[in-house]
């Protein structure tokens, strides 16, 4: 019986012996589309690793990396691993309104991670403003692989391979900070390797035949691990673009899937909503090869999925390709997957019973209080899940709502140099996720985050229900609505809705939102707040920051229209 290595280094070396390649698309490629065999990228990474070793990067060091998705950035990621060091991927300033937050958070991550070196793209170097105590900063283009100055020595041949070390950190992944300050999730080689193996098995991926397509940011675990490290360590073909290329023209995602015969891709719910709009306007594409359309990173909206499937049908998109999943940084990435080919299935429950009794009582679609929640499949190999009472720790039965807890081969050993946070997140050896969820015949259904819950008159109102209800109102920017609870004018908990608007009819939008909220959840919004586009607080991965929004609302710091 053969066993797969628990270190990434032998996996990277094995992938370099395959016929697979990575194709850099759009701004990620030097000329729009640049195909690079994994063996060639591995050679370049060895040369860059040799350069990093000359700069003092040794095994178990941490290297911070900042830059847009490019060939040099991907090479730097592999080079860091080849040194036996851990990558600390720094988020990009995707929202210009938050440039000051970007600079502050970047410097905070560099300091907190004890980075020995910072690799940065030249166009972003000015934002770092180095201080005397900061680690050295090296421009990525100064580490572009090549030969020695006299042209006699291939720098890759000077690379000194360290010993395999499954316990060494491969990634120091900072959490998104959607409900709290970001924490450094420690991901040793063994965790990353185990999660990759589980992803391959649970999604039935064959590196010899499957083709990945991704535009996801490489500073987020889904992009870095699911759609870069997995192909990079297996030799699977990958077409890789930059996030800004997708956001500027969502139709490109669909064009890439067609051109490269993509079989597997992933994105958050909002991306599929944008893809649906694009597909309705496009000439017919051949998307018949597509079999894994992973939907994760944010709550799945069944209506958005149905819209995507409907718009994609004439292009060959199959409903069975929809692949709901649940994952989190603390599990490396994947926690639960549906079986490939099952598509989206929903659990239809009584919203009132869910809110008042924390029980998912089944009802029919015709029921006036019906709420549809996506079934997210079963735990992937190596992972276990359970639902516990958040107060007592007792294990719940099927359909009883409690806190999701996980344990397994790819679960983090804890947060970097944060013993208090590590102790708080573990319960009897299980990791507390902070998610309210329940199970149905062993399948996971997630209701929402515990910290986001709005308690109104004894009811547990989920902010997603409010946000989805108003997303399609004219003048409201879809995906840019936040609902939260706060103390109202009468001293009781009240509902506040903050949204980005694109209209001159402000009063009409407020009235429409108020009416829709009352109809959807049965309670009025005490206040509907309209803010300027691009100013709603979000994490680097695009998740809504409800806690921060509430703080800014209370501090009168929102940028009102």
Task: Present the secondary structure layout.
Layout: H1 8-15, E1 21-26, E2 32-37, H2 38-54, E3 62-66, H3 71-82, E4 86-89, H4 99-112, E5 117-120, E6 137-139, E7 169-174, E8 184-188, H5 189-202, E9 211-214, H6 221-234, E10 237-240, H7 243-248, H8 251-259, E11 264-267, H9 269-281, E12 292-295, H10 302-312, E13 322-327, E14 334-337, E15 346-350, H11 351-357, E16 370-374, E17 378-379, E18 383-388, E19 402-408, H12 419-425, E20 426-427, E21 430-440, E22 443-449, E23 454-456, E24 459-461, H13 463-470, E25 476-487, E26 493-501, H14 506-521, E27 527-531, H15 546-554
Helix pairs in contact: 1-6, 2-3, 5-6, 9-10, 13-14
Q: What is the fold-level CATH name, i.e. the topology of the largest domain?
A: Rossmann fold
Structurally, how many domains make up the residues?
A: 3
Number of strands: 27
First-residue to last-residue Cα separation: 65 Å
Main sheet properties: 5 strands, mixed
Please state roughly what percent of the residues sit in beta strands, choosing from under 5%, 5-15%, 15-25%, 25-35%, 35-45% or over 45%.
25-35%
Shape: globular
What structural class should be given to the helix and strand makeup? Answer: alpha/beta
Radius of gyration: 23 Å
CATH homolog superfamily of the largest domain: ANL, N-terminal domain
How many DSSP helices? 15
In the CATH hierarchy, what is the class of the largest domain? Alpha Beta
- Kindly report the oligomeric state of this protein: single chain
Helix content: 25-40%
Widest sheet: strand order? 11-12-13-14-17
Low-confidence stretches: none
